[in-house]
Predict the 3D structure of the following.
Amino acid sequence: MPDEKEKQDLAWKAVGGLVGFATAWAVKKALGFAWEKTTGKKPPADHDSLDVSLAEAIGYAVVMGVGMQVAQIVMARTARKRYDAWKALKEAAKDVVD
């Protein structure tokens, strides 16, 4: 039977996974929209295609890479703070009941 620490770690992994997936999806959509508004072109779908210039492919890769990483760091830290606050509240409520 898993102890309390293992349950918390499993819960955090589940929350972290869901937050990561949702963040990646939302940021990809937002950065694609921003790319289209800024450049006037749709984001390159196939970076290997010779129809996409090298500068455009590299530019899009840099924007997506940096944007995704920054968003995931911010969301992971925010989710961790919220999870820790929820965990502390749960422990405080448990102490009051006991």
User: Anything to note?
Assistant: The helical segments are 4-39, 54-97. The radius of gyration is 20 Å. The chain has a mean pLDDT of 84.
